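Sequence only, no structure available. Ideas?
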Amino acid sequence: MNPEKRENPLTRWLLIATIALLALVLGLQLWQMFGPDDAPPSGPPAQEASPPASSSQPSGSPASGVSPGKAAMIEDVQALNPSLPFEDLAALSAEELEQLWETGAPGLPIGISAAAQAAEEYAGTLAVDSVTSETDPELDEAPPHYEVELHHPTLGDFEYQIDAYSGQVLEGAPDILKSVQASGGPQEAPGTPGGQAAPATQSPAPGTPAPGAQAPASNTPAPSPAASGEEAAKSAAFAHAGVSAADASSLRCKLEWDDGQQVYDIDFWVGDTEYDYKIDASTYAVLEAEQERQGRPAGSQAAGAFIGEEAAKRAALDHAGVSASGSGFLKCELDEDDGLWVYEIEFRAEGVEYDYEIDASSGAVRKAEQER
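Reply:
I predicted one. C-alpha cells follow.
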C-alpha cells in the first residue's frame, strides 16, 4: 500500500481539529468583547457588588417608608442641594420640605421634634409630663426658625423661637418653673401626676372676663361641664349671641393662636346677621364679639351640605390629572369668601405646586393655578 494514502486521513483529521480549536478560541474572545455587561463579576467579595446605601436611593422603595408624593418633594429639595441626605429629609414634614425648597435648601433644619425639645430644655419643663407643645416651622422667615408654644396646665402658655439650623433659642423665657416659684406664683403639687396644681389657681371664676376681652363675659353662661373643646366654645358663642345652634348656619370654628393665647375663631350666620367670635380655648370666655347685619349673599350654603376634605382633594387631583399617591398635600382648609364656602387646597406633584379652590357644596373647581 502507498504510504502517502495512509497519511492523508490523519493529516485531514489534524487539520479539522486545528480549525475547530481556532474557532473555539475566536468565539471565546468575541464573547468576552461583546458579551452581556451584567454578567456577575468573579473575584471581588459579594458585598462589593451591591452599592452602599446612599442618600439618593430610589425614594419610592418600600423600605424607605416614604410616600411617592413626599419622595418627589425630597427629590426637588435634593436637586437644589444634593448634599442633603434622603433619610434626614424624609424625617421632615411636608410643610418643612415646602419651605426648604422655597428658600433654596441652604442646609438641613433640625426638625419639629428637636425644636420642641430645645424649647422645653430651655424652659426647664422636660420632666413635667403635663406640658404640651405645638411647633410651627418658619423656615422662610428671617432668621429661619421654629415657633414653639409650650402649654402648662396651671402657668399658661409660653412662646419660644428656635433657630432652624443651629437649635439656638432666639426668644423665650428660661426656667419658667423656677421663675414662677421665686415670684410666689402657683407651684407644682408634690406627688401629683404631671405636676398638676390646685384647681384654685387655674382659671378665673365663671363670669370673669379674661385679660384683653372685648366683650363682657358676664353675659356668657358657663358651658355645660360635659362640653369641651370646640363644642364648649360654640356653646359660649351661641349663648352670648342669644341664639341656638339650630338657628346658626355656615358655621366655622377654628383653633388658632392670637398674641400668644390659644383661641377659637368662630363665624356663623343667623338670618341676615353675621357673627364673629373669639373664645378663650382654656376658659371659654368671650374675648371678642362682632355682629354685622347685611343681606345674605346669594351663594351662601349650609355647613351640613359640605362635601368634606377628602372629596375636595379628589376633585382637585382629578382636575390636575395627578394621582393621590404621587402628590403631597400642604394645605386643605375650609374658608368663606363673600358667603360662599370653599376648600382651599395646595399640593405638590412632580415639581409642580398646585393651588385650588373647590366649592364646598358642589365640588366644582372655582380656581386652579399651578407653578413650577
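Residues 3-34 form the longest helix (32 residues).
Hope that gets you unstuck.
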